[in-house]
């Protein structure tokens, strides 16, 4: 069993930055691909970014490419999402997820464990 806890969300003006963290307990993440998803009010949960177990590979949804960077520190059992040049349309609850597989995954069904989410609000 894996417990995931996100932190780092908040209110920021457009153009600003936030860094989300996701700390895991209960199991090492060394053989887990990790993902970040987001869900805006009234919308489905959307893929944002994924990273392979080793951290060598990352993949981003088109709308965040060049602005968001996902990374991981396996020694700390933690993944991060650095978000720059934030836009109002980035406003959502952001969720961290862990998959029992090593390769990148972009669909929610590929992930086995989810955090409770952290709110990100970008004002215009």
Please explain how this structure is put together:
By secondary structure, the protein is mostly beta strands. The chain has strands at 3-7, 10-13, 18-25, 33-39, 46-51, 58-60, 68-73, 78-83, 92-99, 113-114, 118-123. Strands 2, 4, 5, 6, 9, 10 and 11 form a seven-stranded mixed sheet that branches. A four-stranded antiparallel sheet has the order 1-3-8-7, with no helix packed on it. It starts with a strand and ends with a strand.
Tags for this model:
mainly beta, globular, single chain, 7-stranded mixed beta sheet, 4-stranded antiparallel beta sheet, about 120 residues
Short description:
With 124 residues, the chain is mostly beta strands. Helix content is 0%, strand content 49%.
Fraction of helical residues: under 10%
Q: What ranges have pLDDT less than 50 throughout 5 or more consecutive residues?
A: none
SSE class: mainly beta
Radius of gyration: 13 Å
User: What's the overall geometry?
Assistant: globular
Q: Tell me the number of strands.
A: 11
Mean of residue pLDDT? 96
How are the elements arranged and paired?
Elements lengths: L2 E5 L2 E4 L4 E8 L7 E7 L6 E6 L6 E3 L7 E6 L4 E6 L8 E8 L13 E2 L3 E6 L1
Parallel strand pairs: 2-11
Antiparallel strand pairs: 1-3, 3-8, 4-5, 4-9, 5-6, 7-8, 9-10, 9-11
